[in-house]
Amino acid sequence: MKLAHLLRSTALAGIVVLGGTAAQAETFRWASTTDPQTMDPHAVNAAPVLSFLNNIYEGLVRRNQGMAIEPSLAASWEQLEGENGWRFNLRQGVTFQDGSDFTAEDVMFSYERASSEASDVRSWFAPVTEVRVVDEFTIDFVTNAPNPLFPDSIANFLILDSGWAAANGAELPARDSENFATREANGTGPFMLSSRDPGVRTTLAPFDGWWDEAQGNVTEAIFTPIGNSSTGLAALLSGEIDFIEPIPLQDVGQVEGRDGFKVIEGEETRVIMFGFGHEHEALLYSSETEGTNPFTDPRVRLAAAHALNMDAIDRVVMRGKIEAASQLVPAGISGFSEANAERPAYDPDRARELLAEAGYPDGFSFGLKCTNDRYINDEALCRAASSMFAAVGLDAELTSVPVRNYWEQLRADDFDMYLLGWSPGTFDAEHPIRFLLHSQDDEARLGSWNFGNYSNARVDELLPQIQQELDPATRQTLIDELVAISQEEVAYIPLYTQPLIWAAKENIDLTQRADNFFMLRWVSVN
Amino acid sequence: MVYFILKRLFQSIFVMLAVAFLSFSLFRFVGDPVSQMTGVETTVEDRERLREELGLNDPFLFQFARFTGDLLQGDFGYSYRTRQPVAEMIADRIPATLELGTVALIISLLVGIPAGVYTALNPRGFVTQSILLTTLVGVSIPTFVIGIMLIFLFGVQLGWLPTFGRGGTVQIGGWTSSLFTVEGWRALILPAFTLGVYQLTLTMRLVRAEMMEVMRSDYILFATARGIPWRRLHFRHALANTMVPVITIIGLQFGGVIAFSIVTESVFQWPGMGLLFLESIRFVDIPVMGVYLVVIAFFFVLVNLAVDLLYIAIDPRLRVKEAA
Amino acid sequence: MLARFWHSDGFWMLRRSPAAMIAGLVAFLVIAGAVFAPWIASTDPYDLASFSLMDGLLPPVWQDGGMAQFPLGTDDQGRDMISAILYGARLSLLIGLMAMVIATVLGVGLGLAAGYYGGRFDAIVMRIADVQLALPAILTALLIDGIARGVLPSEMHGDVRVAVLTLAIALSLWVNFARTARASTFVERNKEYVQAAMIMGQHPLRVMFRHILPNILGPLLVIMTVDLASAILLEATLSFLGIGLPADSPSLGTLIRIGMQFLLSGEWWILWVPTLFLIALVVSINLLGDFLRDVFNPRLH
Fold it and tell me: What residues does the Solute-binding protein family domain cover (chain A) (predicted)?
């Protein structure tokens, strides 16, 4: 042990000496569980890709450290007069990393590319009816209805250079084969792609011609995906990497206990919840309920909510790192309903009473579907919940599957109750209403993740009003009414907000953003 | 001889086709590729269109025929996940897996055969008992636990060896090798040892069992009676006679090494084919999974052919039979 | 027979070395504990109502905060570790034994026949073996699982997981037996005594099982012992890769997979109690295997 200690301190001394002589070169190595699968910002709408590419490409607007929208490639924007939509006044003097100029043509080109059939992000532009280039640095986005949130909804709409894309045959995102933009990048952002070995190593270097001032000092950034969380933690503790996200909850103590390392904790905006098969005629995984579905009765759903002891889950499964949730967005998100911030208390007696009232004094068995690799400690959560349900007579038969099988099973209605996590992409309460609470409507693209098809006519009526209301106070009243309905009917059982846990060496300064995006421009190596 | 090899090569095409067929029939159980390729906000109709474009709605046999047809024309397709050509992705990863597997196998033979001979000749010594017990415990720990323990001991606590990846690599032609740099070797030690432990024990136990068997057989007893020196006896007569089953197992071991390398590569983030395969399972990347399995099948066919040829070289009686 | 036991190679080792004596005793206790788990364990880890999350993460009794009720502590769900490992070992042993038996019957049968008949039959069997080898165990497990899921109604899926896993492990192991049996059969078949039996017109099955099989038992027994152990380990590995048994009906492998999450967290017992128990179980099986091999191998006496 002594020898090991000696060796380690010698190694550290070596690093310090090196750092002293070469103060200019600040190499930053980081790891995450998933490799961004493409360098094309319109090909895949997935967090690992968009998070990574936000370092290279930029949008018209961007989010600051506190998640608020601020100007980026658009210097300002205002609502159009006389019609619905927004005018963006573009920043002048911005160049792409290959030296070409940024103009409204590039925005137009990127819009066409991102809203094409080959794009995976085209749903962002569903409300857009027309885009007009007004002049070299002005562009209008016309929408089908008043859309106060449109600028917020396109923070991840990243702009490509039209000339570069055309010259390299990357006018459209690659669908079933690759193109130049899959492995090469040319943005306006603070970092340039200097080498890429997919799945192994990706290197970035600062872009000297960036229009904004970097707040960090990284001169070379090396990204390595490490899938196994123990290996990743070992790589951090052995000093081979400077930063890793995420680390398992249970290892927080280990990292904090070591000299030279720190843990960065925050609340993600993702709310974890249980959903029900509201429309199912009968339970799939139950023998004694005989062609009926007890979960159609709101009292049964409320009983399930009362059966869950969130304090125990917080303490044992989630290590005291969670915030209990009352609705589908966490407090702090715009549109959060303060009027409805209470969640059903842990009350097993009340749960049994409710079950008896509903005609199930002895409870019943049902199938609970969960993921085991999607959310933090998801499998442990479901096991804990199963035994809490069992305590009031709700006998859950738990099936936990990898996420690659999960959505398929939910879409095939193969569940009685299921686990879901939802992060509001627009950071507004409207987002989960659109996807999770509105009745399923393929035509209007609403309720597309409402697997159990919860349906309430008043909710469906309220959603378009919320979307178009420009006055914040009126809008909040509408949202409050909607949240009250969903709580009364126990459309879902919101459980908690998932924590964000990152770990880094002590000498690294960085900013953790609630959407779990990692911005290199805020990183300093001290 | 030539006929024999040709016949085997012909049969190997059957093997690869069967593997391709089997793997294709199981892909739909791995998961839904479209869910993994698209984001949360992608609409149902867009998903359906992508499914159509990828040909996932076609009948199973049709998909299989298309896959094999393309394969025979040298078109390995594109990955669903990265959109890169699959042939290139796999080719990039082959050197890492082969170097890891070969070094692991060499370690297991270099240690396993002498240990097997020693423990057979001194069955009751203290050293023998220690070796047997240690290796027994070694193979009783799941590979992934050994790997993680080694990482924490040598990587984190002692800080002697890297915890992940291949270290320094050198490009020789199309082959990325980590065998020519100190960093590369340092990165190779832990995963190769982890991968080799099981094979080492198996080799040792097998050589030992065979040696003990042979040492009791009549002709060794005769030879002893004739006064042949024991060294010559042990190595020329006894060891040579243990080689048929040993070679069988070692041939099989290379397959085992490749199969087990999935776990080792995942623990050490070793950028080989196994890691690629695990990632492609996670993303239901059907083209990569399909080609990986066909490539693995090809390796197995080659190794088995080599084993059979070695038999003939070692055991003259088989040579007569094949000639007949 | 008893005298034979006493004088056998294995037992000689047992008598001579106190360490081996202890190993033998441990082997006995571990296997007995696994077999009689329902009668020994204080709680039933399958019964969700018998444990509470509030008891979760309790350390073993000798550490601060430990409770006498849970001598080796509890896991992240509040399950008693002792009960969990006893039931877990029982399930692991069951899966391992069944998989090994299936693999042996299948592999030795096909290998003997392939070696005996040679020619086209041999070629077909060996190419099927090649196909099997080319499919990693993880994929075989996915395949069997997938077929079961396709064939059986969804509410039965949970019940057949053990059978699915057993079959997948058996299929990953039979090739070893087949190839070894075949190789040895090739050699044996050309020996005079087999040739003589064949010339005398004995039934091929009789030749295979009466004359050839006993003479190739040596290497087969080695593989059987090693493979029973590796069947149990394979189960653990498949769990690690995420296609093992569900967490609420845990085998040792599943317990270790869950425990891996606590490798660094300070709750060492959740990983090491099942891991050490697995090591004890596998070492015991291997020792027992060595011992049985010596006893039943006629050529060693």
Answer: 69-441
| Architecture label for domain A27-234 | 3-Layer(aba) Sandwich (3.40)
d(CA A130, CA A241): 47
The secondary structure of residue A155, as a DSSP letter, is: T
The answer to whether the beta carbons of residues A143 and A129 sit under 8 Å apart is: yes
CB contact under 8 A, C77 and A383: yes
CA-angle at A319, arms to C51 and B279, nearest 5°: 95
pLDDT at A7: 39
- Coil, strand, or helix at residue A358? coil
Chains that touch A (3 or more CB pairs under 8 A): B, C
| Res A21: pLDDT | 38
For residue B110, give both structure tokens: 């270099």
Q: How buried is C44 (Cβ within 10 angstroms: 0-12 exposed, 13-18 middle, 19+ buried)?
A: middle
Q: What are phi and psi of A176, to 5 degrees?
A: -110, 5
From B311's Cα to the closest Cα of chain C, the distance in A is: 9
The DSSP output letter for A217 is: -
C-chain CB neighbours of B202 within 8 Å are 226
Res. A16 pLDDT band, cuts 50 70 90: very low
Domains of chain B in sequence order? 1-73 (no CATH), 86-314 (1.10.3720.10)
A143-161 residue pLDDT tens: 999 998 899 999 999 999 9
φ, ψ of residue B282 in degrees (nearest 5): -60, -35
What's the rounded Cα separation, in Å, for the pair C289 and C223?
10
The first and second tokens of residue A315, run together, are 């303490």
Query: Model-level pTM?
Result: 0.84
Q: CB count, 10 Å around CB of B278?
A: 18
Paired sense of beta strands A524-525 and A85-90, if any: unpaired
A379 chain-C contacts, CB cut-off 8 A: 247
- What is the per-residue pLDDT for B238? 65
Whether the predicted pLDDT of C12 surpasses 80: no
Alpha helices in A198-346 (DSSP H): 229-237, 252-256, 298-306, 310-312
Give the residue with greater pLDDT, A433 vs B255.
A433
- C59-107 confidence digits (pLDDT tens): 888 888 888 888 888 888 888 899 999 999 898 889 998 999 999 999 9
Other beta carbons within 10 angstroms of residue C119's beta carbon come to 8
**Percent of chain A residues topping a pLDDT of 70:** 95
Predicted pLDDT of residue A9: 41
d(CA A415, CA C270): 31
- Name every chain B residue with its beta carbon within 8 A of the beta carbon of A122: 46
Question: Searching chain B, which residue's CA lies closest to the CA of residue A177?
Answer: B83
Residues in chain C with CB shorter than 8 Å from the CB of A317 are 53, 56, 76
Residue A521, classed as helix, strand or coil, is helix
Q: For residue A426, what is the nearest residue in chain B, using CA coordinates?
A: B41
- What are the sequence ranges of the domains in chain A? 27-234, 267-499
Asked whether this complex has an ipTM greater than 0.85, the answer is no
pLDDT at B80 over 60: yes
Q: What is the pLDDT of residue A433?
A: 96
Q: Residue A20 contacts by C-beta under 8 Å, 6 or more apart in sequence?
A: none
Query: What token pair was written down for C89?
Result: 């070992």
Q: From CA C57, how far away is CA C270, in angstroms rounded? A: 8
Is residue A496 a contact partner of residue A271, using CB atoms and an 8 Å limit?
yes
Residue-wise pLDDT for B108-144, tens only, equals 888 988 898 888 888 778 888 888 878 878 877 888 8
| Fold exhibited by the domain A267-499 | Dipeptide-binding Protein; domain 3 (3.10.105)
* DSSP-H helix ranges across B216-242: 218-226, 230-232, 240-241
Amino acid of residue B242:
T
Contact yes or no for C243/C142 (Cβ under 8 A): yes
